[in-house]
């Protein structure tokens, strides 16, 4: 029996996840493995590198910087979240990611991306936090239409949330039987069909029809996964940490105060769930 941590994406609402993992780190709560999708991978990777406070720090500091996230970045680079700024300057220079600690920590860390040619989820185990892992994390967090596709070994990838927003079934197949799940949506949330299908068709219909199909059916898969999680939660088989209400911070957020508010809710909800988390993990 192994313990796992599963982290949903959600753009800059992922600072909720940052608040949760900071509480977990402060309480020295360890997992055998973790998996993050999109922002859940980007911000969640700090639990393996042991960097308490890093995710909320750089989000608040750079959220108004057009190099980080802006329409200007999209127009000039093709990425709403500037790839060079986020995955080179920020990661290696401005607020360095501790890849050595990431590599030395024994916890497995995975991320999920979507392969454009097949329209299916692909799972990558990040081992050292260096360029290949950072590229996979970038692919996992690259929003369709608003991001360039990410090329890895002659294949193209985008947002892992399109095909597996909350990869609990994948983690269960890897042998993770006792899982804590961090969601960025409140209880009862139901995803609706994508509201950008017109643009998705323009971008992907001709070359990547299977990926377009994945976008079209995303809400169905997501809602089924949420139903599965609710069943396991009622049975006491998982612990879910979720926002107390709809996060005010959005996919793209330029207000540091809203980011802090969302982070604080993550801290608060994790503190409320600590006893349940410790009890679940004590059974492994």
UniProtKB/TrEMBL annotation:
GO molecular function (one): hydrolase activity
Organism from which the protein derives: Ruminococcus albus 8
Active site (UniProt): 38 (nucleophile), 159 (proton acceptor)
Chain span(s) of sequence motif GXGXXG: 9-14
Alphabetized InterPro entries for the sequence: Acyl_Trfase/lysoPLipase, DUF6363, NTE, PNPLA_dom, YjjU-like
Keywords (A to Z) from UniProt: Hydrolase, Lipid degradation, Lipid metabolism
Motif (GXSXG): 36-40
Coiled-coil intervals, chain numbering: none
Short sequence motif DGA/G: positions: 159-161
Domain of life, per lineage: Bacteria
Residue span, PNPLA domain: 5-172
Pfam family, one: Patatin
Residues of the signal peptide: none
Protein name: Phospholipase, patatin family
Entries under PROSITE patterns matching the protein: PNPLA
Record-level GO BP terms: lipid catabolic process
